[in-house]
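Need tokens for this chain, all 371 residues.
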Amino acid sequence: MSPRMRRIAISVAATAMSVTLVGCGVLNATGSSDDASPTKGEDITVGLLLPEKANTRYEQFDYPIFKTKVESLTNKKGKVEYANAEADAGKQAEQMQQMIDDKVDVIVLDAVDSHAIADSVQKADDAGIPVIAYDRLAEGPIDAYISFDNELVGEVQGRSLLESLGEPGITDKIVMMNGSSTDPNAKQFKAGALSELKGKVTIAKSYDTKDWKPENAQANMAEAIDAIGAGDIEAVYSANDGMAGGIVKALKAAGVTELPPITGQDAELAAVQRILADEQYMSVYKSYPDEAENAAEMAVAKVQGKDIQFDALTRERVDSPTVKDIPAQLVPVVALTKDNIEDTVVADGIYDVSDICTAEFAAACEAIKLK
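Here are the structure tokens for all 371 residues:
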């Protein structure tokens, strides 16, 4: 199946239910003595470098899920050395150098700046430490990559935005609030969204938002409102939920009471509640447990020399600007709207209904029978 057809197939399934890769029969594979002669035992150290804290997912989900999985795979003998760069590329380079100096067995890296970190990746390679790119495809000699199907994320966002408009016309003006220009994922989200939106609506303003920061998105949106006029903005493409929150603030500050459809990504709790309150149209739910747990499996299998398991976890191939044919796993995504909150973030244990349905949102929850 071609990559395009694969994305279409995933997208169709995603509109109906939360999709996991467990059914493929490879993600729960367990290493055995038949895989290979392990190069390491269970007493291993996995370095985990995450990029920032503005997006709540990294501290709330990715790190604890990853850590728990490494421990379970190593009978609690393995440990995770963790650092968060707080959106500072220079700080991340220092953190990675520390892990190299500490002689960790493998590094799982979510890059702040995919290009700037290439020298550090090379240093790890020179030191014999494998590097697995997590969530964002870093440059340099990467051994493997795991992320979501990022172009599909943008396609789902763009398609949802068109659906929210009913019968969109080329005269409908939208604002595009893309992610950071230093994040290769942001370029893929943007490309996927444009593949759906181009020629169907007018993109009146488009921004690449520095560091993905909500306050920067809010400032950009205020500028767009001044340039276009609040009443003439039919919808807003926001690449993630944090920025959607900033966009909502800018619209409300401009006196908008009936908000236009706004997209998002990451299924943050505040975004799920905004969706309930009709302040955000949708988000893209990405199963962080799948991504984090599978990344942990990849890292442990790589260190322990379990080649069959590692190959089963990396059946796809991607290219970075510096390396071609990188073993990869692309995890499916789900369009999250009012209609499937219960079937996605609640069913997967990301949030309890009590987390979502606080007093402020009780009536909205009752309206969709979320209880």
